[in-house]
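Notes, Module 5: Reading structure tokens.

Key idea: the token line is not a picture. It is a compressed description, and you learn to read it the same way you learned to read a sequence, by spotting repeated patterns. We will look at two proteins. The first is printed below with its tokens.
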Amino acid sequence: MKILLILPGTYPYRVGGVSTWAHNLISNLSDLKFDILAVADGIDLTSKFTIPPNVERIYLVKVGSSNSRNNHSHELVRDLREEFTQSLRLLLDYFLEGSSCELAAKAVCRLRRLFVKYGEETLFGSGETWSFFKRYFSGKGWLGNMTLRELSHAIHLLGDLLKPLEMDLGRYDIVHSALAGFSGLIGIVQKLEHRASYILTEHAIYYKERVYDLVGCGDSYRRFWSTVFRRVSELNYYWADRIVTVSKSNMRWQKELGADEEKIRIIPNGVDVNRFKPISGKADRWSVVSVTRIDPLKDIINLIEAMGYVVGEAPEVKCYIYGPVTDHRYMDHCEAKVSDLGLKDHIKFMGYISNPEIAYNRGWVVVQPSMSEGAPIAVIEAMACGKPVVATDVGGVSEILGDAGVLVPPRNPRALARGILKVLSDEELARELGLRARMKVLREFPMQRIVKEYREIYHDLIRGHGVEGKISRDLETRSCLKPHSGSDLSLCRS
């Protein structure tokens, strides 16, 4: 069994929930062989994990790097005119008009062959390609309202998102993508060209989180990308043989975005309960801990502002925020907010920690302040350590916590502060919530149970490969999209 695991922006170069999931999955399926396709957009390519021995190869796609090749001018011009721009047109028509998923997949396969041959930089850097985009956008009504700067950025971003297609990969029995985004197109190509089985695990909803990124952008630019991100998710759902999600909340989103409910299976995240466990004598009675990335989606500002209210009631409270910085501008904003609120003596940024179980056990209460989540592993880890958790009610957090923690509305610092103070001020409640949390993890989220379910999926796909893996080469022109009402931004209001 040959498995390709697609991990954009995460493992092994970044820490976080998806990276932890991937490392645990690979390590606990030590009898299976994995290759990894990693997509990275940063300059720090130091592995943050010890790579398990059953990883045979890591393909690295560096977004923004140059990888042009075979630039034979006459042949390139012919391919640009006869194949590349025509395939781009088919793909863009799918994105913007909801045309056939089969034709879109066919276009992706053609694009992949050209990306392998020439590289993304050569294809997207050509005058022929730019002329095509200008003609295409100007002929689409509202798209013509983009500024020149927005158009230029959109073209460059589309090239970056399609860059994984330039990897010349071999054949795989199973392709497993951790994102219903552009990198998942590799799974579609492998399915069509090599009859691979394609499995998708979505921790957070790709479309929803990309919509958050578009806040503050121009109307036409935002409408274009919200539509594109929605369609690429729908394309992944359509072609996937199995769709794994981590919560019922995610499942509802996926169904709304057109995923076939019969393909979907909920497998929650899991933790090593022998590593993440209570450590007696470690907790500081008045300490608040958060283990998270410094990233806008994690809404550290929410926690900082909440601490302003907490310290007003209980001046002895200290807050320790552990985790890597993934957005340095946001980090500057957070530090400025701490300074503005006069909280430098109460909030400390501790940076990345390789043994988060120590951090959790340091806290009397653990806080998750995010504005968007799937089923955060950090919450499960804290619960496994027997800690009361105060968390925003987003994604599948309520499914994880149940009655073993305190839920508050997102983006509401006063409510978050009330939740923190509730636990800090009541020792009996804190101990009761911590005990319930530990027991809930032992029942529902042990790592071995989760790994067993993935093993079953892999083997089911291989056993059924002769039937399920047969892909029709007769690319019909039916639409794969379920009708949906409202604007392309309707989902982000829920």
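Here is the second protein, with the sequence above and the tokens below, as before.
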Amino acid sequence: MLRVTVLERGRIMRSDSDADSVELGTPSRRVLPQRLYDLLYRSEGAREDRGEAAVFRWRRNHCLVGSWVGVMQIPSLQLEILPKTDVGAVQDSDQEVRDIRCNLMEMLLRGGLGAVRARGIVDLALKRGNLHDQLVDAFLERTLFELRRGLDRGYATEEDNLATLRGKLVLSRHVALNAAQKARFYCRHDVLTEATQISVRLKQACRVLAARALPVAVLVKCQQVLALLDDVPDLPFRHREPDPVFTRQNERFADIYGFACMLLEGQATDARSGEIETFSLLFDMEQVFERYIAAFLASEVMHRFADASLFPQAKGQRHNLYLDGQDKVLRMAPDLVFVHETAGVQGAKKKTLIIDTKWKRLSEEEGSRPSRPDLYQLYAYLHRYDCQRAHLLYPKAPGLQTRDLNARGRNDSDAGTVGVRFVDLNRKLWTREGKTALADELAAIVREGLDLTPAASVGAIA
């Protein structure tokens, strides 16, 4: 099995040779032997034919890596795709690749996309191993933690011919079976069971992982999970099954259930052997970036603003742009909505700031100006949310400067400001120093957007 790392927006080249001794190049410009390159091409073509999002843009004898990150495996090749966090640098050294991997783990785990939220981030980021092994390890750690607190349980309906009356008597079946046995009762009753959809899915995922080539320590955790789920039946996985209803009793399993589904849905079976040789565990960096910034703001920044509230995905603050009779049309859901209201001050004006995260590379030649669809989107936010400022937040890149675009209204009146802001992700985000620097950077953007003086915010807690 050849294991290689490539960077987002990098290239994968098709070698002129099929020999195992091919020079593999660098993460930014990876070279694959002909056989493996052609196999990757066919595998991705099959994924795209199934309607899945394209990971690569194919050219003659090479392909360009898109904005998906994670791990893909086909027979004889495991491909790790990491984000490009510094456009101006090559980022091909082993240390730089390790730092990028740690940053991605921090973003995935804090954003809730890697089955674990804040728990264990520092330890996981410092572990060695590729991204796939670290994500699987995080999933198993969290699964063990939750199962040791108690397995998910639920009621299931059963029917049986019992010696005592239990539940509801099924009269038709009772008469047919017990006409000569007056000491038996055919009943339909509910039983408390551990064989819930959540437990079954977790066991299915661990069965899949147990068959993969993983570090011994990870396989041990996998076996520990399977031992805890020993009484749960082994059922085959079926695609597109409806998800269970999560309540306050079982919502602690929601993250790991979603990750288990991702593991199971991302696998493909080899038709000749029946063994699972092909799988993918991929994340859209647009979503990773958005959820990481939202989670980081909530945990590391918002305590600095005593009278401000944050609404990720505009939860509780969503509006519609149109009405068609009584029907609401085009519901708006900005990534981040900040509302500032000074408590206990009469006549204090409510301030609203909207931030939309964008995992894009702005062009320096165009003066770091956003695309027209993004500007139209922010103009609609300014109008519908009646706010004076809205920001587009991009990863920082060399040569690009912050800027403000003044929106125009009727009769050329002032309709608010759309700001272009950047956040530096090319730092060690899993360290205390990296978190503090990022928190200061985001706090300055929020303070400026809400037009607050430093005295209006609470000092950062050391």
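Summary for the second protein:
- The mean pLDDT is 84.
- The CA atoms of residues 151 and 310 lie 34 Å apart.
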